[in-house]
Amino acid sequence: MSKKLQSLFRLEQNAPNVHTVFFDNVRAGWEQWILLSADRHHDNKHCDWAFEKQHLEQVKERSAGIVDVGDLYCAMQGKYDPRSNMDALRPEHKTEKYLDALVTTATEFYQPYARHFLVIGRGNHETNITKRHGTDLTDSLCRNLRKEPGTVLQAGGYGGWVRFIFKIQGTVERCIRLKYFHGGGGGAIMTHGTLDTRRQASFLPDADIVVNGHTHDQYIVPLQRERLSMKGTVEQDVMWCIRTGTYKDEYGDGSGGWHVEKRGAPKPIGAVWLKFSYEHHSRIRVEPMPSLRNG
């Protein structure tokens, strides 16, 4: 009998949309990578599967985790969706069992990387399907992927939290709190949504990292903060405000299509790497890094 494949991560669900990932034995030289993604729109004809696969292979090489904050599916070609267009379907999705086919093909694509997924949140494309059809595409994919040995993946919410707990040299414990929210609104042409960083900072005082998606823009904005410690000393820290791009290239060569006709601009194709590493004085260093196609 084959030995059960060991999990890469220890994950605990504290609430439906709150999860904790534990890292033990953190010491000098230790590092951990996390891929932050959103708006994969995997079933869309314009999704760049090759670049998506490139990132997933890097995830395996780095023994990285994945936190996805929604719209993994596009799911716009079913009944009751005014945007549906048979010409926009991939061949494998041209079936009466359209929603089942979406889950099946996504499961096959992500199965080799199942052990690396930590949380998959829901976006407006998934919640729209639940409202119209009474089925949860995110939950179905997570249940399928958890059949792979060593997989700890859980479905998240439209918004939620991931706590990263670090046990340093067996004694000191540190916590990095990541707040994710898929996003809302139509995006901002001039600011790319960067004004949301201040808005969210005003009501998310406990977040060390805030991750958004939805508008297919990408940015990394550090907000420096003044804090008062329990000892009464004034300190500073950083809230990292991140918006991830997409794997769906709606613009193409700019010759036509819905996105072009509504004067949409080209969007960043890619995601964001998050690197945790041990720093002196028992601190955890947080380094977000963009990873874009052609960039």
Q: Any low-confidence stretches, pLDDT <50, length ≥5?
A: none
Strand order in the sheet with the most strands: 1-2-7-8-9-11-10
Q: Write down the secondary-structure element order.
A: EEEHEHEHHEEEHEEEHEE
Largest sheet: 7 strands, mixed
What coarse outline follows from CA principal-axis ratios? globular
What's the count of strands?
13
How many domains make up the 3D coordinates? Answer: 1
- CATH class call: Alpha Beta
Mean pLDDT comes to 93
Structural class: alpha/beta
Strand content: 25-35%
Distance between the termini: 46 Å
CATH topology: Purple Acid Phosphatase, chain A, domain 2
> Helical proportion?
10-25%
Q: Architecture in CATH?
A: 4-Layer Sandwich
What Rg do the Cα atoms give? 20 Å
Per DSSP, the total helix count is: 6
Describe this structure in words.
Helix 1 links the parallel strand 3 and strand 4. Strands 1-2-7-8-9-11-10 form a seven-stranded mixed β-sheet, with helices on one face. A six-stranded mixed β-sheet has the order 6-5-4-3-12-13, covered by helices on one side. The chain has 295 residues and is α/β, with parallel strands linked by helices. It has helices at residues 49-62, 98-110, 124-133, 137-145, 196-203, 258-261; strands at 10-15, 18-26, 31-37, 65-68, 117-120, 154-155, 159-168, 172-181, 209-212, 219-228, 234-243, 270-279, 283-292. It contains six helices and 13 strands. It has a single domain (11-292), classed as Purple Acid Phosphatase, chain A, domain 2 (4-Layer Sandwich), CATH 3.60.21. Helix 2 packs parallel to helix 4. The termini are far apart. Helices cover 20% and strands 33% of the residues.
